[in-house]
Specification:
The chain contains 30 helices and 26 strands. It is α/β, with parallel strands linked by helices. Helix 2 runs parallel beside helix 3. The longest helix has 34 residues. The protein starts with a helix and ends with a helix.
């Protein structure tokens, strides 16, 4: 397996562990294990290297790698690893890379290249909701495209699968219902005859052996029911500092507890708070400041003392290397993961821990923790206040082998039924909550996603939609509770603030609607005014009434609005009072930090300037002839299909015909007049007619007209034409022309028959190929138009 070893060494500067090389060899031969079982600290992210190498070598591994971790903060850590790996390759070999940890992905560019190998690193919510045709933060009409990408030719890797048992069950059901996916769980405790873990060469490896063997003695501390948990955790951390530990971690089970410990320790020394409830922009700022002092490899260079207070979000994969650790008691699987952040490279001869347990009748997160505490006590050495358990990997494996720990409760999850998938995969309104298929019937709650804007208006949000870096994920119940707290404010100016804070915008991926914050739903992306408070540099802070920073600008767009850029307020006012050219706004956008400014979109009291690469169909105003546009879409759909390995001539011809005929309905004289056609040469796109009173009947869809004009075409051709804007699955808007409905025939029956033939995700993929081909061709047409306009303006 020298090829992989050499390839890996070139990427990282050191060779892979033996288990990583052996795994790459297995999957190259098509010999997939049921699960990966290496323990924490043994390089599990190497699964990405193995997949990518096998893909580049032409071995038949899935095109997309969906790496799922149910810890938002860790999604970013694995993302950084994958980003560095991709950047080590020649540009032509680099796969797409997307991190999904909030209501909106970094961008949706990845779905526009269905034939490109892609790494998607995601939470359970984000990947799971997309697979079930219900993507959180995805426009409803685009949901089937995301489902197609994640339900076909995809390898799903579930890191620490004990955190994602309901999703594992749902993935199995999706496979039974036709999803073309492979599932690879990762868990050190997976029981199966066909697993892949550490071998003899790993146990004697000079690096791994040290990580496995070095002790981590954990002191067991039991509190009384009325003791102050925050004070006890902080005191234990201070004691470890007094004993000589420089980098001391404190892991709490709840965000409120972590914030309390952080505030206590921060008053005395340097401390940082890390939770999953933080905007990526704020997290990046924090990690930029503190990560060099706490990451793996930083100990040898010397580092100043620091308290790292965190929640369980750092359990899985976070590349932190602590000198000592205090942890609130949790199930053994969680304690093992937390201990994995301690002395990760085995550089310390011994690294101390303290486990603090405050008895509760029923922990709201983990349930009954008494059995696991009793089990720790039985395996402890010493007596009274000096009881210790060694959490070193080898030592703990010996302890668990001699006396298995109590079984951990996992949330039960419903079985996904075909009748339910019929509704989820359609655009029939159903009101089904998909959360139980992702998280089970559990105590916790799925998330909503909060975004704060200084220019909190629907025009601005539509022109500059929320992006991942500005979204903060909080449990649905926490947002509802917060809105209730705001509603309780009744007096004077505070009452006015209450009303202002309770108003927000719900963004569904296509449009923004005003709602009362108390009416939020699971998975919502909500845009709040910065005056609402609730967030500081460390993340979710429901008690905070300070204005929240607006971080909505990026290298993709800037909002030239006086509330967003007060330093440019005078320049903005001058341009608003005149009739400036787009180039004037572009020059100002450059001063605001936007590289390569492009399209300008007007909003109330300002404009949004997009980077040149951010063209959307909203700019499709220049005339494009139908005879030029339609054949190009057909050819592009075939190109996509061939790139995905489609070889059936009949199916390829179907895609070509669907692409070539998708806009046939636009030949309707009314549509041509509406877009400014001359009645001689039909347009596919146009700038609009001169007569403002001229419009189409409400609800009229050109796709329906296209289907009617293709009455003699094959059923699949007609279906792909009818669905190329996301409608017709099987419902269309209420078109006012009964004749169109009659000419379309039994549309719902046609769709049902095609689902039976191609499957839910298979049919969605065929729809996506035509739709994405239309997007790709339209984008190229408008980029050409933009270049022409820029040359003319110059």
């Amino acid at each position: 397996m020298g090829d992989f070893v050499d390839w890996y060494h070139q990427r990282h500067g050191y060779p892979p562990f033996p288990w990583q090389a052996a795994f790459a060899a297995r999957i190259a031969d098509g010999d997939w294990p049921d699960a990966l079982t290496p323990p924490t600290g043994s390089g599990k992210t190497g699964v990405i290297d193995a997949w990518l190498w096998a893909r580049l070598q032409g071995h038949p591994v899935p095109r997309r790698l969906v790496y799922v971790i149910d810890r938002r903060l860790v999604v970013d850590g694995v993302g950084h690893y994958a980003h560095a790996l991709c950047n080590s390759l020649p540009e032509a070999d680099r796969p797409g890379l997307i991190q999904m940890r909030g209501g909106i992905t970094i961008d949706n560019d990845w779905v526009t290249e269905p034939d490109r190998p892609t790494i998607l690193i995601s939470t359970v919510d984000q990947a799971g909701s997309r697979l079930l045709f219900s993507g959180y933060g995805v426009a409803p009409r685009a949901a089937s495209i995301h489902a197609a990408m994640l339900g076909n030719d995809a390898l799903w890797v579930l890191d620490e699968v004990h955190l994602a048992q309901p999703l594992l069950k749902t993935l199995s059901a999706c496979r039974d219902l036709g999803a073309q996916i492979r599932v690879l769980p990762m868990s050190a405790t997976w029981e199966s005859e066909n697993t892949h873990g550490l071998g003899g060469d790993d146990l004697t490896h000079p690096v791994l052996a040290r990580r496995l063997a070095n002790p981590k003695p954990a002191k067991l501390v039991k509190l009384r029911g009325n003791d102050d948990l925050v004070a006890a955790l902080a005191k234990a951390a201070e004691s470890l500092r007094e004993e000589g530990a420089g980098l001391v971690g404190v892991v709490c089970n709840r965000v409120a507890t972590a914030r309390g410990v952080f505030e206590h320790l921060q008053a005395a020394d340097d401390a940082v708070l890390l939770t999953g409830r933080i905007r990526p922009a704020d997290r990046d700022a924090l990690l930029g400041e503190y990560l060099p002092r706490m990451t793996t490899g930083s100990r040898a260079a010397g580092r100043d003392p620091l308290y790292v207070v965190a929640t369980q979000t750092i359990e899985v994969g976070a590349d932190l290397d602590l000198d000592a650790l205090v942890t609130e008691h949790a199930p053994l699987s969680a304690l093992r993961q937390r201990a994995g952040r301690l002395n990760r490279l085995g550089e310390l001869v011994s690294a101390p821990m303290t486990v603090v347990y405050q008895p509760r009748k029923d922990d709201p997160i983990y349930g009954d923790l008494k059995p696991s505490w009793d089990w720790l006590g039985k395996g402890a050495t010493g007596k009274g206040k000096n009881r210790h358990v060694d959490f070193g990997i080898s030592a703990l494996n010996t302890t668990t082998a001699g006396s298995p720990p109590p079984a951990e409760s996992t949330p039960t999850a419903p079985q996904l039924l075909r009748s339910q998938l019929d509704l989820l995969a359609s655009n029939v309104p159903h009101g089904i909550d998909i959360a139980p298929w992702l998280h089970g019937w559990q105590r916790g709650s799925p998330d909503v996603y909060l975004c704060w804007r200084a220019d909190c208006g629907s025009e601005s949000v539509t022109a500059a939609p929320p992006q991942q870096h500005e979204l903060l994920a909080v449990p649905w119940w926490a947002a509802r509770q917060w809105s209730g707290d705001l509603a309780d404010i009744e007096d004077g100016s505070a009452g006015e603030a209450r009303e202002r804070r309770l108003e927000c915008l719900r963004w569904d991926g296509e449009r923004a609607e005003h709602i009362d914050l108390r009416r939020t739903r699971i998975g919502d992306t909500l845009v709040l005014p910065v005056a609402a408070g609730g967030c500081d540099r460390y993340g979710w802070a429901p008690e905070s009434i300070a204005a929240v920073s607006d971080v909505g600008d990026s290298d993709r767009r800037v909002r030239l609005h006086p509330a967003v850029h007060p330093e440019l307020a005078e320049d903005i006012a001058v341009l608003l009072d005149s009739e400036p050219s787009p180039n004037a706004w572009r020059r100002l956008a450059g001063r605001a930090g936007l590289p390569d400014p492009g399209r300008v979109v007007a909003i109330a009291n300002g404009v949004v300037v997009l980077a040149r690469s951010q063209w959307t169909s909203a700019s499709a105003y220049r005339p494009v002839l139908l005879r030029d546009h339609a054949p190009g879409v057909g050819a592009e759909a075939v190109r996509f299909a061939r790139g995905l390995g489609f070889t059936d001539p009949e199916l390829l011809d179907t895609l070509r015909l669907a692409g070539s005929g998708h806009d046939a309905g636009k030949a309707d004289p009314r549509w041509q007049a509406w877009v400014g056609g001359d009645g001689v040469e039909p347009l596919a796109k146009g700038p609009g007619g001169d007569d403002l009173w001229l419009t189409l009947p409400r609800g009229w869809r050109h796709e329906m007209g296209s289907v009617a004009r293709l009455a003699a075409a094959a059923p699949l051709v007609r279906y792909l034409v009818g669905t190329h804007h996301g409608h017709g699955r099987p419902l269309f808007p209420a078109a006012p022309e009964p004749e169109l409905w009659r000419q379309m025939g039994d549309w719902a029956g046609l769709r049902a028959e095609l689902v039976r033939e191609h499957g839910y995700w298979g049919l969605a993929l065929l729809e996506a190929l035509v739709r994405l081909a239309d997007w790709r061709v339209s984008s190229a047409e408008q980029e050409d138009a933009t270049d022409e306009a820029d040359r003319a303006a110059a």
